[in-house]
Fold this protein.
Amino acid sequence: MGKQTLQYFSGKSIEMPDRAIIVGCHCDTDEKMLMTENFLSKVRERFNNYDVFLIVASHLSVSEKIQDVADLFILNKNNPIINLDLISDRSKTSQMMNELWRANGVMERVSCLRKNHSYAHHLLIRDAFNFCIMNDINHVHFMNYDSPIKCLSEIEWHVEKLMKYDGVFYQYHHQQYYSTEFFSMNSKSFDKFLSHITTYEQWESFDHIDTEVNYKEFLKTAKIYCDDIFDPDVSDVIGSVSFQSEVNRKGEVDVLKNIVSNFTIIPYERDGRIVINNSYTGFDDPKNEKHVLWESYDENMEQINHLDAIVQKNNWCDYICPEKCKYIKIYIDTELKSFFDITDKRNIGKIE
Amino acid sequence: MRQTLELNYGEEKQLSSDAIIIGAHCNSQERVDRCIELITRLREKYPEYAIILCSHISIDQKLFDLVDYFVYNKNNATINYHIIDKRLDWRVFAIYQPGINQEVRRAVQNNGYAHYMQVYDGLTIANGQKMKKMHYMSYDVSFDVVNRISMHRDFLDHYEVVNYTFREDRFISSEFFSITDIGSEKSILKNLTFDDYYNLGNGEIGTEDVYANIFNDCNVKTLGFFHNDDRKDPWVIGDFTAMPLLTDQSKVSMLPTSIDGLIIIPYDDPNEFGKTILCVANGYYYENDGKIDKVTLTFLDDDMNVIDEKHTTNLGLHYWAQYYPDINVKYVKVFVDDVFRLTFDLRNRKNYGWILNG
């Protein structure tokens, strides 16, 4: 099968190239939109559209600029979050927990279900790879929008490896898994090993839910060249943005994602009151303390109260929500980081 | 086995097995509004169906909000613009100028292949998601289409393709049809290159020619003309005339061979090297019945400064006028009946025609 014709001049055809870069993005803030635009510009500076077909895949809408830089943009609105939209017996075992030593020496645990976007991430990758499969684009490089520019020089040797291997990955988590922030695969190999994973039931069929673990499982019979950690001097995490709470571009109420600027934030119920536990847990955060401000609002968005605190690293504090409180805004170091509905049961954890 | 939308222990909601694929080219607010109206009506009637919007131009937030999938494929390869070949350039728009004993010609652009690619992209998404029944339509189809989908769906229990004839029995409409996953694998998803497309049309390049042959291996239910009343041209399902090139009022556009019946052909002045002559004529346009009251051309330099402006009024059907832009003119703005239509690059050779003497 041939490829899409881009141009044709007197019997000579220019077709879609045999290589594609897929950039997966999630521009829920203006900052991330700008980051994506900049990253795509760098890709385009380095590779023209006759050499590398540039695909942007997303669960959210993007700016016109992003659409125009890309050769192809695929939006899939379905962005199901595990333990929010997808709840199973397996997913419920994935939890987050803060251990709280009270002043009276009693230790309590607050916990909540860990929200995870791994399946949605796979759907995004799959959408773009599927296009490559159907358009006979053989060598495909996937990278997230927050990847370092260094990825663009790495893909040259990836192509060489793809002549002999199904895919090229980097180690993740003590050499046990594959990083899925940046990798390359032949589209036929993706079709063989990963394309058939469509439902969530299939996604957790190996009793795991994280992308890095699952891709290692799904690809166990594939011929994979797994390189060292991408940047051994930094960490096995390739991208600069982690899955955590942000106030979306429209400033709308969202579900609380429990990681908020390196705090683990878990609301729980005690004696009929809702309490928000805020634990400063970020081990690699350079700051030793952070300023937290809570604002509470009633159902008409009238402010009820506000309170602030300085929280030391590895320490925590509780904010007791006032009566008739419906919405909460949390600012970390004066930046609004979370805006959620405290009466939404999905935001509430438990205490033991 | 399609992607999961929601799961609450045993209760799972998956992406629909039915997809509505809309091919759009919303390069004006009027067209955006029309597309929004169509999708809104489809959503009301078929809330469970997945809606896949395919376009060769970017879209705005309003359209994003309405669809489940959006595919923007920048490849809008237009015949006789991006695709140039001896097999194709005999189809010309010609302005006959008996007074000066010449004919100005320009090869007719055709968006058939680009249109076909939109369908291919939509089916790629749908088949990739293991959907079973797909209903393709252009964004400007008659709203009567909305009520036909359930009938098509029922037919797809017994057929692989449901479609309509166009003009004559030997042509098939490409504006609205339904197809199963198996039908699409046996037809459209097997043919991707321009040569594939050209061969399917047996040398013709219209989508109606290609669609008349592409389903030969499928079990097809053809329902005659879309409209059954005594209207003129009952085979026409869409409302907007295709303007094959990527015209954009906010940017410099490529120059289509016809702007709603107004033919514009720049060509090299045979008597003065390096100079361009701009010939305009009133071809026929169905929607305005060949009536063009006023044509205004504004000539601009490299920095978009106005150099000159020319008007022609009451340009009768098949009448022509000719202009001799200054050598410093780089861009031309075109207004038809005082409505701004586009800006084109006078130095872009792809916009040029040629003269045939005698």
Q: What stands out?
A: The CA atoms of residues 44 and 146 of chain B lie 10 Å apart. The two ends of chain B are 66 Å apart (CA to CA). The mean pLDDT of chain B is 91. The first strand of chain B starts at residue 4 and ends at 8.
